[in-house]
Amino acid sequence: MLRSARLVDKMGAMTVTESAKFLDRDTTDHTTRERSDLSSVGACSRSFEALVAPRSSATAWPAGDVVGLEHEYRVFVGARAVDFRTVVHHLDLGRPRLDPADPNAYRLASGAALTADDEEAEIALAPSFVRPGCGYRLASTARSERRALERRLADGAHLEGYSTHLSVAVRPSSSAVIAKLYARSFSAAMMLLMDSACSPGLLVRPRPSRLELGGEFVDGDRLVVAAIFAVGSIRACQRRLEGGVAAVSFPGRLVVDVQRDDQRYGWFVSRSAFATDLYLAGREAALRPQRGSPITAQAHLERCWAAARATLVEDVDETELALVDRVVRSDEPLPAPTPAIERRSLSRLDTTRVTDDEPARAFGSAVRAQARPGYDLAPVMLTWDRAVFVLSAPRRDRLAFASVPAPLLMSFFSQLDGGALDETILSYLALSPRGRLLRRATATARPGLYDRLAPRAWLLVPEKAPRPVRRGGKRTVSGAIGRGWRFTAGFVTGVRG
Fold it and tell me: Range of 383's domain?
């Protein structure tokens, strides 16, 4: 086994703090006070950055041009629900503990991540570029990952869909503003397209560098529609804030009772947030704009889709646009009468439209330990935004770390596989460690080489904590999404199979 692979396996049995202490000890023992080598060490890191990130390369996911998906499932053996936390570590999965915020997460060779979110299984796909066929690719990959998980489970076990979380890349500085605008302009339309008649509502969460929308479990063509609309509507909000969408073509803001999300920082829009039960009335629901006369939910849906569609025509397959067109203009009831939780209710999918996915390949490559001429490489951290690899030179008993922004993983592996990085990395490993410490999230925004790695949690961008609900105030039911809560005749009920 590669030395770096053995190192990662040893780290996997430790806590994050213990891992950092182990790595610090392994590198600090070799540190010297030779100041003459410092400039050469810095030159190696700058050379690494120049090779991985040419001047035209973006080190952050481009706003509105990247989409991600998380699917949650309940796990059953027969009629008995199983806590996936008791199962996930016994399935012989991929690389564990690459996400310091999630000790249950495994990064798979496909590039996806599998974890336990409370009692449910969660599959998170690698970020995907918005290109023709991206919606079909997302739905096809999600279905493949579901089937792969079902094959790993014991005989008699099966999955039921629980929730869907779609993420679209946005500028970090504008994510909260976009979330508030989205909740008051596009949420009703998204809820009609994504949810079912027994769903609780929609989560709108500003996350670091992305906006997350959480709702009912959807699959197949229903997932394609939800994903395409999510990308287009979030793009429209971004462009509206930048002045690129005229007010006349932007859907009017509605009167909405937006509640705080009590699980994460963000907002929850319930089915009754529009002074009527949106899911009972469906397309005919009467919505109140902040300005002007009431309009039907159908009219508002058409306005929202027109604004979203205008941002997509150059980047999305015409078949995907036509699919959303049909759903928006058809006479079929919205939201869907029932959620697509079971395999027999999975919606159809046109797999002939599926296209290649470079980020998924890069994330899959990042999971594997590799032997290069004179050194080994293995991952120690991999998230939506950043990756860190441990580099080892067995002959010198020397360790180093390479930080790579996740959007540059494709460039990194292209250069690595072609041998362009070998000289720079070998030169760095040949120098005595100078104590270069990777310890801040801001440092991971650029490629670089380091001697030591701080606790990996320090490299995560801090997220705002959910705001506490005031005593006597309204409590949200955002936890219902992902907990199997269903609305029946206006009441929230817990459903367990």
Answer: 3-58+369-459
